[in-house]
Amino acid sequence: MLEPIKRYLDGLEFDFVRYRYIAGPFSAVMMVIAWAVFIVVGPNWGIDFTGGTEIHLQFSEPTQIAEVRTALRAMELSDDAVQAVNGADSGEFVIRIQDASFGMEELETEMETALAETFGKDWVEGMSASAEVSARFVVDYTGDPKPHQEVARELRPRFDGLTANPGKTTTQVILQVPGLSERIKDRIAVSLGDKEFSVLSTDAVGPKVGGELRRQGFISIAATLGLVLLYVAFRFDIGFAPGAVLALAHDVSLTVGIFVLAGLEFNLPMIGALLTIVGYSLNDTIVIYDRIRENRDRYRRNDLPSLINVSISETITRTVATSITTLLAITMFLAIGGPVIRNFALAMFFGIVFGTYSTVFVASPMILVMEDLKPYLSKLVATDATPSGPSGEDGDAPTGPLTESEKRRRERADAEQRPSA
Length: 421
Hints:
Elements: H1 3-10, H2 20-40, E1 44-45, H3 47-50, E2 52-59, H4 65-74, E3 82-85, E4 92-97, H5 104-119, E5 124-131, E6 135-141, H6 148-155, E7 163-166, E8 172-177, H7 180-192, E9 197-205, H8 207-235, H9 241-262, E10 265-266, H10 268-298, H11 304-336, H12 339-380, H13 404-417
Parallel strand pairs: 1-10
Antiparallel strand pairs: 2-4, 2-9, 3-4, 5-6, 6-8, 7-8
């Protein structure tokens, strides 16, 4: 069944490079649109990046999502903060509270009351509160300095797990109350009334941690593209590197743009998916680049556009087979993988499609663009030193020292072209 397709691809002779004047502008416009959507509309950040609490509940009796949404409205939360998982009849729901300070007002009031009743109404001079994974209170008080251990010991009966640390002054103490997520669960239980449920998992991220994760995620993608630029420049030629990086940026940009337009959650697994897309697309690009270099050494008299077309045609069977096989696996993740891995799989699906396209119609034709720009770039970096040694009639004289691998390749190419005795 697949043999005719393989024979067709093996014998395919198609002028891929010819369409670079259509594919190039089209890809550039799509990238601009994707980043415009990212800036104007903005992604749907998950709690990994915004901070907040995610609680996975399972009800012991059939419960409709409308009932949970009604309870959330009573808590002054958005309707879309709840999502049914594992089917509508499973009784399982994930509630995402992206306000990291949710529940802090009540806890702050409890803390003020506890301090006033324990140490006196005039003891607290000032107090500031902040919400990370735990609630943090910086308390300035009047009167004689108290050891922070004593303050913790007095308040611990009211707040389980409370810890105290000395502040910047002798009359300042820093209090931390863990389990803010536990208080959120209690509020959900009150809002749901007599509905019994169990908590399967809880995930809490503070706003400072979320902001740092978002910054590090983008830095990791940018650093990866920079390292790819260096790798391709050293592995092949500096003229190959911009095409590879541009193709990877194209794949990442379009995948991000689709996620923003669809309103899908942008979280840490999404960053992992983007980095995986970079690796997959780079592998495809390297295969074709390696064949272009081999053919350039073997057929020195061929013009570069024809050589690129031949190289793509020789590797197209491998490219299509790899892409289809990977897409089949990703489709299974989408079908039966569940909500936890669904966004990751969806990003990979789009990334593979875009990566296959960009390898053929973005990365490879960019070699021609760089060849056209070489004379102008040479003028910019020209020095008084002139290269020594004669140039071949085909203009293929090396412009710098050759690596041992490159020398061996050229020797093999010369041996193949030398007429047999």
